[in-house]
Each structure stands twice: as C-alpha cells, then as structure tokens.
C-alpha cells in the first residue's frame, strides 16, 4: 500500500520538483511511471481508490491521479454493471474528482497519457448527457482543453465541445477555444522530433499531439467539417456574423476528392444566410472551391441562391415571395430563425446604403426611399435611432424645431470620429497581426514537416488528382512558406 | 407585284442589325426598303416644329436618301407630315421603285386622305412594274450572254448594270449580291474601288453597318494613286463614322468625323451632307470628350472648322461647353432636338447622346466644388422653366436624376437634403483607403487560414471522399440511436446527432 | 478551490458585497453547475429562482445579451414559469427590441424578489448610463420628451418644459435652447479599451500615415 503510494508520488510535476532534473531523466521517469501504472496487476480489482484522491494531488501528480481515476471508474463500472454509474453522474463524488482533475492537471505530464486523458473528457461528456444536462460538461471541457493548450491543433475533443455547447445553448464558455485559430491536424510526426522529449519545451503541439498520441480519436473529414459548422452555428447564435461566415467558408472550401459532403451543402446554405445577415451581400466565394463543387451548391441550395439574389437586388417583394415560398425548406433545414432575421437586416443595409447617396435627409425621406415593412414615421425613426445608437450606422440624429416632429438624419464624415478611429484602426491591426502570427507559425511548421517527410508529399501528390490550374496564383501562403519553393506553391494552390 | 418576295435567309449579313432595330425606337433605313415594315419599332412622334425648311433641307441630298429622309420626316413630324409625304410621293413617282411609291401614298392617305396624291395611281404603278420587269429580264439575259462569252469586263459591267437597276427599284439584297459578284471580274484597282463604294452605298441604305465597316476597311487596303486617295478619303471617313455612330461607338465616330477632309463637299450627297458631318461629329464629340479635348481637337481643328461653319450653333454649343457655360450649351441642343429627331441617322441616338452630354456637363460642373447648392445647380440644369424654387424638392425630376447618377457611380458625391446641397465625397478618401487596407488585411488572414487548413487537411488525408462517406453515415445513424457509450473504453459516442442540434430563432 | 455550496445566504452575501459586474458574472457562472444539479429538488425553487435572476442580470450588466438569451434556454422549464423569471424574459424581449420605455417600466414597476433588488437597481442605473452615452453620441438635438423617455424620466413633464427635468440634462453638459425647445447633447467620447501589447512602433507608423495632428 505505502509502496504503491510511493510510486504514485514519485514524479512530481516540474514546477514542484526541487531537483530540477534534466529533460531526459524526467522523460524516463515519466515513462517508467506509465509502464508501472499500466501493469496488469497494479489495479487489483478489489480495493477502493477513493482514499488516494485526497492524498495524491491532481496538479502535482497528474499522471498518477489520472490513472487512479481510471482504476476507480473501471471498478465502479464493474461493480454496478453500468457504463455511467451513479457516483459518476454530475454531482456524484467520482464526478467531482474528475472535474477537479480536469481543472488542475499538469499539461506536461498529461502528454504521456493523451489517450487516457481524452477518455476521461469523453466520460464527462457522456455523464452530463446521461442526465440530460450537457451544459454541465461544457465549461469543464472548455477549461480542460484550454489547459492542455493544443496551440492550433484540432482534436476530436474540440468537436465534442462544440456539440455539447450547441446542445446545451451555452456558448460563451467555448469562445476562448473557438476564437483560437486552428490550423493543424494530428499526423504522424514522431520521427521528426526524435531528438526531443515529450516533456520538453515545444514550439508546436505537433510534437505531442500526433495520430498515435490518443489526444484525438482517429479523425475523418466529417469531424473537422462538423466542428466548423457547429462553431459557425454558435457564432450565429451570438450574432458574430464575420466569424460565422469564416467558419462556414472553411467548410464549403474544404478539399474534396470527387465528392461533396452533405455537411458542406448545409454549410453553404447557412453561409448564404450568414453573409446576407452580416454583410448584406454574398462576398465572392473562395477561389479554392472547385467548379463542380460550386455547381453542386448552386443546384442543391437553389432556394437560398434566389433568396440572396432578391436580397442583393433590393427587391423586397420578390424576397418576401421567396421567403414565403420556401417556408418548408427553411424549416426542414433548421434555418427558419436565420431567414426570419433577413428582413431586419434588409432594412439595416438599405439605410446604410442611403448614406452613400445622401449626406443628410429626413426620416420621412428615409421612409420613402427605403421601402420596407415600416409602418410609419415613428417606426422608422425608432429603427434608425437603434442603428445609430448601437453604432451600426455612422450618423447622427437631430430633432428639428417646430411643432411637426421632423427628424433629420445626418450621415457623418467619418473624420468626425477621428480620435475614435485611430484606436479602432489600431485594435483591428493588432488583431490582424496576432492572427497572422499564428498562421505564419502554422505555415512554418507545416513547411518543416513537409520538407522532412517526402513520402507525405508523394502521398499527397498521388491522392489528389493534380489538375495544376496554371492561372492559380497561390499568392497567399507561398510567400511566408518560402523555403519550400514549388512544393509550397502546389500545396497552397488550387489542388482540388 | 414585281419584286420577288424576299427570302429572310437572304438577309444574312444584316440580320444582327435587324434584331437591333426591333428593340430600338424609331425608324431605321432598313425598314424603308419596303420589305421589313413588320420589324420596325414604335415610331417617334415629333410634335415640335423643326427649325429647317423642308425644301432647302432636302435639296442637300441626291439619290435614294432623299425619299428615305422625306418619308421619315413625313411619318414622324406632325408639322411637316403632309408636305413631306407629298414630296415623297412625287420623289417616288419620278423613279422606278414602285413599292416605296405605294408606301408613301399609303402613309399620306392615313393622315390626309383628301389630298390628290393620297390616291394611288394604278396606271403608273402597273406601267412601271412592267417596265421594271422587262428591264430586269433584259439585264439578266444580257449578263447570261456575257457569261457565256467569258469576257471579264463585260461580265463586270453586266453585274454593275444589274446591281444599279436593282438598287434603283429598291431590291437591296439583290443589288448587294449583284455588286458583290463584280469582285471576280475587276481588272483594275479603280474598278475595285468603284465596286466597293457601290456596295457601301447599298449597305448604308440597308443599315448593315458591319458590312459598311468591313468594306471601308477593304477600301483602305487598296493602294490607289495619291490623287485617288485624296478624292476617296472623305467619303470613306464619312461612311466609317456613320457606321460607328450607329454601333454606338461615339468616341470612335467623333474621331472619324473629325478626320473627314472638308474636300468632301457635296460629293457624298447620296448619303450625307457636309452639314450632317458637322452635326453628327459635333454631337458625338460633345458626348464623348472632355473640355480640353473638345477645345483642342474640335474647336481648334482647322479642317473640321470648315464643317462647323455650316452649323454655327453646334460650334456655339461646343464652345459654351468648353467655357463651362453649360446652360446655354444645353439650351441650344434642346432647341434643335426636333431637327435631330427627324434626322434619319440621329433619330435613334439623339436621346443617348443628349443624356451623355448632360451627365458630362453635370460632372464637369461639379469638379471645382466641394459643395454646391441644389438650387444653383437647378438654375443651370433644369431647362424650360423659369421658376426654379420648386425644382429642388427631393422628389423633383432633377434631384431624382442626381440620385440616379450617384447610385450608378457616375457622380462621387452625396446629397444633403437638409441644407439642399450636393457634397463631394472627396473628404472621405483617406479613410476609405485605411478602411480598405484593414479589410484587405482581414481578408488576407482569412484566405491564408483557409489555404493553410487546406494544406494540412490534405496532408492528414482528411479530404471529403465518396465511399468513406456512406459507410460512416450508416455508422453514425446507428450510433445516434444508441443512447450512451457501450463501454468506458470505447469511444464515447452517445452524442446526439446533428439533427438534434437546434437552429436558432 | 471549489466555491462554498450555493445557498440563499451565500447568494445574499455575494450580492450584498456588490462586486464589479465582471466579478459577479464570474462567481455566479461558477455556481451554475451547482444550480443545475439542484434543479431537480422541489424545495430549492426559491434559491434557484433567485440565483437565475441574479445570474441573468449579471449577463445584462456585462452586455452579454445573446448569452443571456441562451441562458433563458438553459433554465429548467418549470423554473422559467415563475413570476420572477417570466419578468426576466419580458425584460430580455424589451431590451432585444430596444423599447426603452418598456424596459424602465419592467425594471421599476414589476415585482422583483427582495434578494434581487440590488442587481435590478444596479442594472437600471447601468442601463440609464449606457443609454445616456448612446443618446449623447447619437443626437445633435433632441426634444425633451424623447430624451426623457430614453432615460426613463417623465416624458409628459419634460414636454411641458419641466425645469427639474431639463436641469437633469443640463447637469450632464447638455445645452438647453429655450427658443427652439430642444436639448443639445454633449457627446461622451471614450476611447476603446487599450490593449496591453500595443507596440510603440505601430503607434508611430499610424501617426505617420494618418494626419492625426492636422
């Protein structure tokens, strides 16, 4: 017993290690610990481990704690013959320990037990769903994922998280995870990092999240497509249209091999709506979408396309007709809510557009020139005022003297907001810069692994029917990737 | 009827033009050859009296264009209808084209049935038809004889005679064909030149402007002697400019008109007069050139001055425009609108030309200002009224016109309906650039992310694949019905599937 | 590390401490898990209603209106039928539709549980302040009645030119024009929150490419 405890607490997490041992030794110690914990005899099926939970610290001896949890869960499962026993349900004592662990584990130690860590996360997800309270798992998983810090690496846990968030309508907790730029997928990169150890400092997570590390299940294309579709749906619920439409762009421009996924078609439909709601028009689609894929979208999402046409042509009558006509389609596609927001967005963009023709006009003029569902003056003024007050419309309002209540809408020259704007521009620049940094890092990383693994390239070249589009400029990306020369050119180019 | 009914297929070269006329308003020359009335668009009705006098106007022209012009005036102008149609009847009766006679009489009988000329002269018509028929037969017969004898020069002349005959009787497609057949039998350059001019003349009457252009090009390809060249240039340039005018290339048309040598004189009166060159050229230039160009290339153009002297008001309009006196310029044009609407070549284009000139005036007027009051603009651009106070109401035609110009991007300005001014958008430029730069940064980041993801998706072998897709779909469908995970060690798949995910309302 | 168990006393203590909106939101959102687990117990209805009401207001105080809407979806259905949470839903709808008069009416006239009073009141003043800023920046001239209804003051009195109300506005730096009977708001300019990692070089470049100092 005490021997067991001794082994459990033999390898503290590095900040708690007084000796400051070398990475190599630490690596060996951790590997030893793992193989000890994985011995068949260690977990004798009779004893109860709950006492250890108070003795072993989840943050200092994370690996040991993780395995204790496993032992205990297996034990209880066996005893109760249930997948999710009572005390693993949210609020149960075992659940509390799991949550405690996921909130405080040491991300370095956990690198040696990715598979076990992920299973624990999935248990949390299942347990919360077992009592139909998925919300309980969202924050825990988001925190755990944040702790692990996958730095740009996509895992199946990401997908689990957004699914739960959508099911439980708790969105904000996922934002710290979703707002991070993801650009990598676990691949076989073990031999690249043969010189370093799992516990070493790594520039990228590709060193410890690989296809064999267990942090993610074996991914299929559906996983990342669903992740971005669900992320987009969360952003849409929060009305962050630009993020939503970017996520949807990822889905609809995903590389394909002679087939289009249904998820992509659904994403295209939502992309049409999100673009109209966010920008008032359909921006050009990414040039990376193959023509035959575009044709599939156009034909399968026809009602959406004609709806967008009516919207863009400012043909309110046709738009209403399209909306009525497609009621059952919107309902079947679960897009009724988005469609119903189109009218307000239409009015909003009509009024914003007025600012390009007029620099000042009365509300009566607005009413006359932006035909919509406004009933009267008062209605219009209220709507315009809400746009101005929420900063959607850069303009000011003025009540004019006199008994008849005339209101003047003045679209300001943006210079009047000068002080504001400097800050605003700076913030946007900084945001762009940090996103760009992440991506540049991702590119360098991709570049390195690509150069080092030729078979990868051969595989890619074989698996993609290369129809090297000569007019494709590949301008983005190839610049930063630099070293790879024509290899990058091709990769970053239009390899559909 | 003497004329063989035309096979529509024979209209080959002019068919694109036919479709063009169907949508354009007004009469075009092709409808005047008696075979295509059905395709003519709605007629233009001109109620204002023109400034010209019919007799002196028509004296400028010779040949078939006289009838065509009179007929157009007769059918469009309420003022000159009777006079012009009577003259047209007389003109037709002096020739051999029976069908145009019949049409002129028909048109006259509709508006003035009591006139003596409004009753068809059966005697004359039958007699003429017989004469024409005999003449056709004779010429065809002669030509066959020449062909048998294989004498090139005779065949050429035989075709020429036949072509001329067909042209005179108004059978333009046959005339075109006969003239075209001359080509193989021309032995000297001057034969070729004369043949090409004949073809051009028929093509102009048919309104086949593509053919006019290609044959003028062919003329240019000939290299006759110097004096020939100088003699032919004005007519070539005039024919070319007409075709460019009709195809809507007003700047090219202006350039060609400006390049027409004043030695043209009355030499091309069967097509157009030097006055026409001044008017057509002047209007095309006004519609397509800026103030500097107009000054330099039109007013200071010594050779074109000869033409402009014939139509001093055009010269005045252009110099007003150059001096930024837009109202008098527009007033002159307004005053002559009726004249131009009764012109066989201008009728279909005058509206477009006027709109362009007007738009350009507004643009030029605004250049020096950052803000202009709508009232002062109305004083210049609202013609035909003296009471300007009501003209800048936000629903007035003038303000609507400005709104249209702003919305289609012609004017870079915005309207302030409060202070009743037009504000130039210049002040926003710097911010627009900043905004655009930031947007492009965002787009760049997004695009880079998409591309990087794409590369890594491909690297990880995660492209969308057909077979795999179906298999997985089935697994997931089944998985969706199973409630919770089977075993702790298996993948937790109790996730409810996509269909459970609610949409947002 | 885990917060003390959720109870009426704990909740009262938390609310009485009047923490900053952000802190309030964070501590309440830590309790959501517990609340969620309590939901099945019938004797905890009072606690849950009070908790969710407070949690709802902490969303409003931190301008998370969309998440507040999501919260109303997460709250168990039977709880949502209680008066207090029904009023929250009404309030949410009024805020969503930007019906100022209605918002004030709900906040002031509808019954709120005793324990929630402080958050309700602090939201009222928060909302008033926020609206004042929005109106100040949006209107160059405004009729007193309109301004009053935006800020939840008596619009009828304002229309009659009640000096007390006018004075409230002039106290904010607004100018009263007695001749035109219009108020002229004074814009409230606040810079957006500065980011810590702002680099000097960037600021300098920005200063160069923009003619800020002209």
From TrEMBL, chain A:
InterPro entries with a match to the protein in the record: COP9_N, CSN3, PCI_dom
Domain PCI: 243-411
Keywords per UniProt: Cytoplasm, Nucleus, Signalosome
Chain positions covered by the region annotation Disordered: 1-22, 463-496
Main location class: cytoplasm
Bias kind Gly residues: ranges: 476-485
Record has Heme as a keyword: no
Compartments where found: Cytoplasm; Nucleus
Coiled coil: none
Biased composition range(s): Acidic residues: 486-496
Pfam families cross-referenced by the UniProt entry: COP9_hel_rpt (PF22788)
PANTHER family: 26S PROTEASOME NON-ATPASE REGULATORY SUBUNIT 3/COP9 SIGNALOSOME COMPLEX SUBUNIT 3 (PTHR10758), COP9 SIGNALOSOME COMPLEX SUBUNIT 3 (PTHR10758:SF1)
Subunit structure of this chain's protein: Component of the COP9 signalosome (CSN) complex.
Family: Belongs to the CSN3 family.
Protein name: COP9 signalosome complex subunit 3
Native organism: Aspergillus cavernicola
TrEMBL record, chain B:
Location of this chain's protein in the cell: Cytoplasm; Nucleus
Keywords associated with the record: Cytoplasm, Nucleus, Proteasome, Signalosome
Source taxon at top rank: Eukaryota
InterPro entries, per the entry: PCI_dom, Rpn7/CSN1, Rpn7_N, WH_DNA-bd_sf
One Pfam assignment: PCI
PANTHER family: 26S PROTESOME SUBUNIT 6 (PTHR14145), COP9 SIGNALOSOME COMPLEX SUBUNIT 1 (PTHR14145:SF2)
UniProt record similarity statement: Belongs to the CSN1 family.
Name used for this protein in its record: 26S proteasome subunit RPN7-domain-containing protein
Species: Aspergillus cavernicola
TrEMBL record, chain C:
UniProt keyword list: Cytoplasm, Nucleus, Signalosome
Every CSN8/PSMD8/EIF3K domain range: 49-190
Subcellular location(s) of the protein: Cytoplasm; Nucleus
Entry-linked Pfam families: CSN8_PSD8_EIF3K (PF10075)
Listed name of the protein: COP9 signalosome
Organism: Aspergillus cavernicola
